[in-house]
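Structure ticket #2291
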Amino acid sequence: MRVLLFANTAWYLYNFRYAQILALQAEGYEVLLLSPPDSYGEELTRLGLDWRAAPMQRLSVNPWRELRLLTWLIGFIRSEQIGLVHGFTIKSALYGSLAARLAGDRPRVSAVAGLGYVFTSPSVKARLLRPLVSGLFRVALGGRKSRLIIQNGDDAAVFEEARLIDKRHIRLIKGSGVDLDRFTPPSGEPARPPFRVLLPARLLWDKGVGELVEAAQLLRARGAAVEVVLAGEPDPGNPAAVPKDAIHRWQDEGLIQWPGKVDDTPALFRSVHAVVLPSYREGLPKSLIEAAGCARPLITTNVPGCREVVTDGVDGLLVAPRDASALADAIERLSADPILCQRLGGAARRKAQAEFDERIVIERTMAVYQELKS
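Resolution: structure written out below.
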C-alpha cells in the first residue's frame, strides 16, 4: 500500500514522524511525504525519503486558493495511486481526509494534535471560520473508512459532542512518541546556583511565553536566583507568534536567555534544572515528554493535553493557566528543594517509559491502519 503522510510543515514530519516513517517502511508500506516547502523538505529528501511540495499556504482563507489546493490534492492522490492518507494538524488533516474521500472514498486517518487556532482563538477571524471548518470536518470524517486520532480525552470529547465524527471512529493515542533511548537522564545534576528553567517551544503567546516573562520579573523582584531560558523560534505562519523585537527586549533587560532553535535537545534538557510549559491548551506536548525522559521536573498548566503528561505533585507541578504569580511560585518552590526536583524528575521518567515511548505510539498507529485495511 502507498501511504501519504501530509502535514502543514516538513519540519513537523522530520521532528515528529520520522520514526513512524521508518516503521512503515519496515512493514512494507511505500511512504510519500507531502507538505508546503521549507528547509526540512530538503533534509527529508537527503535522507532518501520521497518528499513532495504542496501548493499550500497555512494561513490562507482565500476560497479560490483553497479550492485549487483541494482540487490539486484530489488529483495528486489519484495520480500517485495513494492507498491511505494520514493528515496531521487541523488544516492538513481536514484537507487530506476530504481529498481522500472525494478521490474515491479512500481510507484516511486524521491526526489532530490539539484543536488549533480556529477552535481555540477568541479572535473574530477564528470565530467566523469555526462553523465552516466544523461543517467540512463532518464531511471529511464521515464514512466507515475514516479514523480520527486524538491525543487527549478533552479534545476527543469536543469532536464527539460537536458530532463531527461517529464516536466509534475516534482513537485516543497519546502523542507522537519519544525516543527514550535518546532522551535519558544526565550523569549528574547541573551546578547550582542559579536555578535554570527552560521553556522549549515555538514562541507563541498561547504557549504562555508572556506569563513566563512576567514570572521572571516577579522572581527577580523577590531576589530569587533563577535563570529563564526560551529555546525556540517564533512561528511566522501562526497568528499568535511572539514578535522578535519583544524577545530581544526581554533579553536585553536580562529577563531571559534566548539561544534560539537548539538542535541537540537532549543536551539542552540535561543542562537545566526544570522544564516549564505554561500553555493555554495542547494536544499532547512532546517537549514535556522529552524533558520527562531526561528526568527533569515539569511545571505546566492544568489544561487539556498538559495534564495528560503531569499529575500534580507526582511527576511535576500543575498551575492555573494565564497566572504568572502561580507560575513564579512553582518555579521558586522547585528552586528551593532539590530533593523534590529529584523525586518529580524520576517519576516523570518512569511515566514516559510506561505511556509515551515512541514504540507504543507507533504500534497503536499501525493498529489503526490495519483496521482500515481489513
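Closing remark: The chain is about 45% helix and 15% strand.
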